[in-house]
Amino acid sequence: MNPRLDLLQTYPFEKLRVLVADVKPADKPAISFGIGEPRHPTPQFIKDAMTASLSGLAVYPATAGTEALRKTIAGWLERRYGLPKVDAATEVLPVSGSREALFAFAQTVIDASQPDPLVVCPNPFYQIYEGAALLAGARPVFANSDPARNFAPDFDQVDADVWPKVQLLYVCSPGNPTGAVLSLDDWKRLFALSDQYGFVIASDECYSEIYFDEANPPLGALEAAHKLGRGFERLVMFSSLSKRSNVPGLRSGFVAGDAAILKKFLLYRTYHGAALNPAVQAASVAAWDDEAHVRENRAAYVKKFAEVTPMLAEVMDVALPDAAFYLWADISRTGLSDTEFAVRLLAEQNVAVLPGSYLAREAHGVNPGQNRVRMALVATPDECVEGARRIVEFCKSLA
Question: Higher confidence at residue 118 or residue 273?
Answer without folding.
Answer: 118
